[in-house]
From TrEMBL:
MF (Gene Ontology): ATP binding; ATP hydrolysis activity
Similarity-based family: Belongs to the ABC transporter superfamily. Ycf16 family.
Protein name in the entry: Fe-S cluster assembly ATPase SufC
Gene: sufC
Pfam families, sorted: ABC_tran (PF00005)
Keyword Nucleotide-binding: yes
Lineage: Bacteria, Bacillati, Actinomycetota, Actinomycetes, Micrococcales
Amino acid sequence: MSTLEIKDLHVSIETEQGRKPILKGVSLTINTGETHAIMGPNGSGKSTLASTIAGHPRYTVDSGSITLDGEDVLSMSVDERARAGLFLAMQYPVEVPGVTMTNFLRTAKTALDGEAPSLRHWTKDVKAAMSDLRIDADFAQRNVNEGFSGGEKKRVEILQLELFHPKFAILDETDSGLDVDALKVVSEGVNREHSKGGMGTLLITHYTRILRYIKPDFVHVFVDGHIAEQGGPELADRLEEEGYDRFTGANAAAG
Ligand code: ADP
Ligand code: MG
Ligand code: MG
């Protein structure tokens, strides 16, 4: 078993008005095999947490720690984090012009494992995973994310997840912009990877809809840069009914 541990994390960003604190003491422990959902209103810092785990240079860690099995993640480069087993699916995936999916996936897999995958198995694995995710075979020769629809980008993210076998997957609004069919396909991919054992998942979402397909063990409500409440799956049901008003202090009647 592996453990990703976030302890009293404070993160800020530089803005034109000066330094702005965003994360204000986040503590969270995820073990492999567990699925944690982070839910919260827009602007509460969910993507900041995901980007900080991934090592995005824009975010400054003022205090606190992130460790993977005791190893200091914050001192690792982005590549080192990926090799240590962290996988981040971005809310806004980037396009990589001039690089085909096939080349990108094989290059990334080689960098992650430190050796090239056996071509025979690899080609078979890629084909099978693409078929499972209902990604057309043509996509193998297309440039990464170039001209992909929102739903296609999400499927390709989960394709990477299924081929790279990370220890921890951080999925930031993987559900945004997906119709129900795509949401099911993407969720099935996450569940398949989960059932192989050993993956810990941090599922970040604004809406409860994806939690019908990916069942969280723990739910954390994120408000104003910290975890305001924690619970089991029943907390997600409650949020579906009540929204975030009781956390944000908004007038429920104003809806
Ligand atoms: P969430 O993902 O929960 O919607 P974010 O982490 O994206 O929240 O944002 C948290 C807060 O940080 C918001 O107030 C947002 O405006 C601010 N923020 C995040 N990234 C930037 C940025 N690059 N520049 C300015 N403000 C930012
Ligand atoms: Mg947002
Ligand atoms: Mg976000």
